[in-house]
């Protein structure tokens, strides 16, 4: 990895992309400290210190922007929700399905346009909800219409800027822009994590042996967890493909062997991000319309506690177990959805057949499709279940009061995004190497 980064910095074009990405990341972090106009900072600090689990989750994803009620307080969450909705609609609306599968580059642009439009609508609703939810807490200087409009416009503008930053990183920088923003938001909690470990070892009475052992155990556990995630993210099943001799123009091209690399976690980290956002969405809506819901009882209060169990240790074990089961199912479902959205066995089978290829021992056509589908299903079940368990395990154990930013879900996101970014750096270097070779 370090060798790849070193080589990338030596290549002018790639170095420009890296520096541009770093510049946009700095813009994002600066925006996290620009408080929305009309907010009383002292009251805001008191209100956020008594926040609940869902506030902590949003704050983790936004890199602390939510606790400061900055212009980026809503982070990229409305865009993630909009992406989920558009992709689910693409499964039921024929016109959207055609755009997704057959539209090519033009279709992708239209889908992206629809996603951004829906993002603005959701951002407007969420911004209004945040103002309504916190207007009685005293964090705003006043609750007049103009103040509310200013707060809402600032929050929606912040989400729009984050969408633009994400697109710029994707198109002109390195890595997936949306994933990179979430990645930076999570790792910004690293100093507080280190402080927490230090406080475990050093107490008011001096050095704590128990705290030292707990800290060492946490560090070893994190290393094992990261190693497991890297193994699953990098592991792949290689399907051999044999191509027979054929005539290309006036030349006879000889037989050649190659393979199809099928990864265990082909969908990457997006199923984790989507499942987490999808699961906490009910709590966000309930919190907007019901004041002090955490201290109430009834169906809505139960649904709220169930929804925040991913990010809060204050709920009962029953809520945590139920939430963990639903979380696992959602991760598996989104993993299957994304895997088959990016890899179509029938399409791959047809391409192999058209090019005169075959998988040894498997007939071309439908048998090849069935064979690839079977392998993909097995790999996806194993990979998705492994990632789901890693995401759920820290939530169920809760032995310490560690910051949520370094739970299983966050480690999956951080490691997955880091690996994808390094792979993209490698592909950029390879592309420029072959370009120079051809010239």
Short description:
Helix content is 70%, strand content 6%. The strands form 3 sheets. It has a 3-stranded antiparallel beta sheet, sandwiched between helices. It is mainly alpha-helical and 439 residues long.
Care to describe what's here?
The chain has a three-stranded antiparallel sheet, with helices on both faces. The chain has a two-stranded antiparallel sheet with strand order 1-2. Strand 4 (246-248) and strand 5 form a beta hairpin. The model is unreliable at 399-405 and 434-439 (pLDDT under 50). By secondary structure, the protein is mainly α. It has helices at residues 2-10, 12-31, 41-49, 53-61, 77-92, 94-102, 104-134, 145-172, 177-187, 190-201, 209-234, 270-289, 299-308, 317-342, 345-354, 366-397, 408-438, and strands at 202-203, 206-207, 236-243, 246-248, 251-253, 256-263, 357-358. The protein has 17 helices and seven strands. Helix 5 crosses helix 7 (104-134) and helix 11 runs antiparallel to helix 16 (366-397).
How is this fold's topology laid out?
Blueprint: H1 2-10, H2 12-31, H3 41-49, H4 53-61, H5 77-92, H6 94-102, H7 104-134, H8 145-172, H9 177-187, H10 190-201, E1 202-203, E2 206-207, H11 209-234, E3 236-243, E4 246-248, E5 251-253, E6 256-263, H12 270-289, H13 299-308, H14 317-342, H15 345-354, E7 357-358, H16 366-397, H17 408-438
Antiparallel strand pairs: 1-2, 3-6, 3-7, 4-5
Helix pairs in contact: 1-17, 2-8, 5-6, 5-7, 5-12, 6-7, 7-8, 7-12, 8-9, 9-17, 10-11, 11-16, 11-17, 12-13, 12-14, 13-14, 14-16, 15-16, 16-17
């Amino acid at each position: 990895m370090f060798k790849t980064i070193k080589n990338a910095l030596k290549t002018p074009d790639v170095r420009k992309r890296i520096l541009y990405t770093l510049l946009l990341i700095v813009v994002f972090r600066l925006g996290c400290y620009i408080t929305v106009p009309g907010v009383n900072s002292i009251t805001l600090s008191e209100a956020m210190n008594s926040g609940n689990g869902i506030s902590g989750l949003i704050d983790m994803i936004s890199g602390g922007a939510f606790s400061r009620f900055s212009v980026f307080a809503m982070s990229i969450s409305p865009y993630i929700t909009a992406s989920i909705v558009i992709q689910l609609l693409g499964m039921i609306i024929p016109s959207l399905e055609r755009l997704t599968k057959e539209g090519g580059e033009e279709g992708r642009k239209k889908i992206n346009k629809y996603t951004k439009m829906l993002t603005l609508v959701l951002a407007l609703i969420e911004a209004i909800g945040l103002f309504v939810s916190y207007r009685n807490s005293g964090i705003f200087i006043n609750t007049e219409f103009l103040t509310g409009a200013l707060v809402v416009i600032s929050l929606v503008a912040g989400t729009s800027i984050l969408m633009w930053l994400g697109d710029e990183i994707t198109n002109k920088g390195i890595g997936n822009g949306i994933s990179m923003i979430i990645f930076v938001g999570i790792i910004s909690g690293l100093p507080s994590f280190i402080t927490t470990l230090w406080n475990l070892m050093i107490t008011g009475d001096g050095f704590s042996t128990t705290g030292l052992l707990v800290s060492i155990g946490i560090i070893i556990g994190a290393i094992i967890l990261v190693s497991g995630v890297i193994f699953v993210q990098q592991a792949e099943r290689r399907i051999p493909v044999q191509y027979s001799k054929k005539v290309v123009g006036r030349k006879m091209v000889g037989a050649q062997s190659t393979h199809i690399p099928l990864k265990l976690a082909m969908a990457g980290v997006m199923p984790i991000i989507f499942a987490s956002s999808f699961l906490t969405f009910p709590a966000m809506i309930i919190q907007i319309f019901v004041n002090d819901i955490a201290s109430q009882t009834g169906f809505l209060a139960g649904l709220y506690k169930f929804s925040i169990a991913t990010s809060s240790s204050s709920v009962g074990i029953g809520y945590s177990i139920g939430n963990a089961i639903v979380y696992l199912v959602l991760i598996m479902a989104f993993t299957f959805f994304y895997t088959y959205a990016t890899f179509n066995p029938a399409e791959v089978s047809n391409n192999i057949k058209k090019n005169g290829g075959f998988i040894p021992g498997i007939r071309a056509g439908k048998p090849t499709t069935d064979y690839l589908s079977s392998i993909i299903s097995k790999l996806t079940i194993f990979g998705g279940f492994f990632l789901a368990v890693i995401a759920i395990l820290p939530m169920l154990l809760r032995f310490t009061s560690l910051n949520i930013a370094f739970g299983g879900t966050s480690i999956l996101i951080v490691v997955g995004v880091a690996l994808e970014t390094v792979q993209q750096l490698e592909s950029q270097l390879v592309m420029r190497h072959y370009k120079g070779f051809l010239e």
